[in-house]
Amino acid sequence: MSTSDPSRIVEKILNDARSEAERIVSHAKAEAEARRMEVRKRADTEVEAAVTKFRRVKEEEARRVVVEAKVKAKERWLKEREELINQAMEKVKEKLAEVTKSSSYVKILESLIEEAAVAIGGGDLIVEVNERDSKLNLDLEGIAKAVSSKTGVNTKIELSKARLRCMGGAVVSSKDGRFSYDNTLESRLERLSSTMRLTAARILFEGLSY
Amino acid sequence: MTSFIEGIKTVLKAEEEARRIIEEAKRQAEAIRKEAEAFKVDVSKEIEEAKERVAREVEEKVKSEIKTVEEDLEAKVLKLRSSASKNMGRAVEELLKLVLPWAEGG
């Protein structure tokens, strides 16, 4: 560069200065951006860690709440199911009450007495029934014959003067008091309760499961 | 000679201007650095906000799942009742046969 052309020297000096200034500012901006990004990244990492832990706790709580709701739902379903089975059981009791007033009841009562008498092995037996049934024309002799035949033990059956407080059926006891068989309708319902409930469930809810 | 001296003066003045430009750039750079150093993230606030967001999300999810459980239950209870209603007569007849096998129809 010629010293005789100071304007070109000045231009170069200023251009160099401007370039250097631009470099300095750009470098500062880049550093600042890098720092901001670093700060942002550290913050994001910290936030992410805290939130992940928080989410885990909240989701576990939520899972428990949902499981509890499902358990309660199943309990309600089972309760509803039990209530419907109970309704069936109540209807059976109503039907039994109707049966005790029907003309076929005498034969049924005789069958109940016979079953009880066979169960205790025949012999000298006493039959207790309720007040209403005591007025029925029961063929105790015929029953005794059938029991003798089935058990091979000579059987006599007489009606007790004592009366039961029950819907129907009979209690048959050996005269010596050693054996007794409760074949009242209430007792039969109680003995058969589990089987009846299972049967009711099977029929009422055919093909249904929770 | 005069022209040469004038030339020198112009160059010196330009160098002065160049120094001023550089100094100004350094001041700007320093300001940028200070501003960057001042940049901070309120992590506690961001955590709180994120937690609130997560809590809302999870709550919505739970509400939705519980609603599904309840709707499912209602549907199942309706099925139970409908099935029981349809089969009640037959069930009672079968139960009666269990209690009194000698009854009519038993």
3D structure, described in words:
Chain A is of the alpha+beta class and 210 residues long. Chain A contains five helices and four strands, in the order ααβααβββα. Chain A has a four-stranded mixed β-sheet with strand order 2-1-3-4. In chain A, a hairpin with a 5-residue loop joins strand 3 and strand 4. In chain A, helix 1 runs antiparallel to helix 5. The longest helix of chain A is centred in the first third of the chain and has 95 residues. Chain A is rod-shaped, with a radius of gyration of 48 Å. The model of chain A has no long low-confidence stretch (mean pLDDT 95). Chain B is an all-alpha fold and 106 residues long. Chain B has two domains: 39 residues; 65 residues. Helices cover 89% and strands 0% of the residues of chain B. Chain B contains two helices and no strands. Chains A and B meet through helix 1, helix 2 and helix 5 of A and helix 1 and helix 2 of B.
